[in-house]
Design goal:
311 residues, alpha+beta, 11 helices, 41% helix
Length: 311
């Protein structure tokens, strides 16, 4: 633990005084573009989300909330580790650890196939651990989906992109705002009813279906139509040749009544999840898929020779 803390401090010090070199764009998060970067004078790779500080006030408030959530979550191994932020020419660079495998959504697109159930089982256990940590801090993620679950070269899995995360206070135990991505959004969120961590649990269930089939339910519909369909439609069902415990877990997550959905810490005690050995079973399979995707991908573009200098 002390070694990890020392490493984080060393990285923060380097980021504060050294010039980072931006490399290829690796994604787009809420309110910003994400690049891979290398800390000057080291072999350390990090991810940098670049946010325009001249954006409107509501976006900057969301960015502030994102940074606060990441900074409070450094103790959880299933959440992307926050390393610091600094200003570069009126843009904010939010620096986190870099996971070289990309997102699970990208991984499925590159391999052109869903994840095997043995992988999904471990992924769900890691997502639930990350959400349980956030919920214990009275924070909601509000945008759980395959694109926001990152995987490292060695198969480690971490929940990312806290751009729409929010905090429940003593006076606000539930939210009402319409936030998230329609296909993964819980019925109560769409209806702008009061909601809490159960909304994240619904998104976990939809993500499980996505990982098992490559698409979330209603994926053929326009996002705006989904907002009308989900509250009225029956709960989605995981169909196909999957085990009964997997299907049962998904069904519990996508119960239409939010009160019928178990909390994340309860789901972690479900036998199908609790008996999962992520390190021995799921992680090697994910690492193999990352290697397969890398072999099929075109070579990366050369890094830009121009790099902004922190002000």
């Amino acid at each position: 633990m002390h070694q990890a803390r020392d490493r984080r401090e060393r990285l923060r010090e380097m980021l504060a005084r050294e010039r980072d070199t931006l490399e290829e764009q690796v994604g787009r998060g809420s309110f910003g573009v994400v690049h891979r970067a290398r800390v000057a004078g080291t072999k350390e790779q990090v991810a940098v989300k670049i946010v325009d500080l001249e954006a409107d006030v509501s976006e900057l408030e969301a960015v502030k909330s994102e940074v606060e959530t990441m900074a409070s979550a450094t103790a959880c191994a299933q959440l992307v580790r926050y390393l610091g932020c600094h200003v570069v020419r009126r843009r904010l660079w939010i620096v986190t650890e870099y996971l070289g495998g990309g997102s699970l959504g990208d991984l499925m697109a590159k391999t052109n196939k869903p994840l095997p159930e043995a992988c999904i089982r471990g992924v769900l256990s890691e997502i639930l651990k990350g959400l349980a940590f956030l919920h214990a801090q009275r924070r909601l993620h509000r945008d759980v989906k395959g694109k926001n679950v990152l995987v490292s070269i060695d198969g480690s899995v971490k929940l990312a992109d806290f751009g729409v995360a929010t905090r429940l206070t003593d006076t606000t135990t539930k939210r009402r705002s319409l936030i998230g991505t329609p296909y993964w959004m819980a019925p109560e969120v769409i209806e702008q009813s009061r909601y809490d961590g159960a909304a994240d649990v619904w998104s976990v269930g939809i993500t499980a279906i996505e990982l098992a089939t490559t698409k979330p339910p209603h994926s053929t519909l326009h996002p705006m139509k989904v907002l009308f369909v989900v509250p009225k439609a029956a709960s989605p069902v995981l169909e196909g040749e999957f085990t009964a415990p997997f299907k049962a877990l998904v069904a519990r997550c996508v119960a239409k009544n939010a009160d019928d959905r178990p909390a994340c810490d309860v789901l972690l005690r479900a036998p199908w999840i609790a008996s999962c050995n992520f390190e021995a079973a799921s992680k090697p399979l994910l690492a193999a898929l990352v290697a397969e995707a890398a072999a099929a991908a075109p070579p990366p573009r050369p890094p830009s020779s121009r790099s902004p200098t922190p002000s």
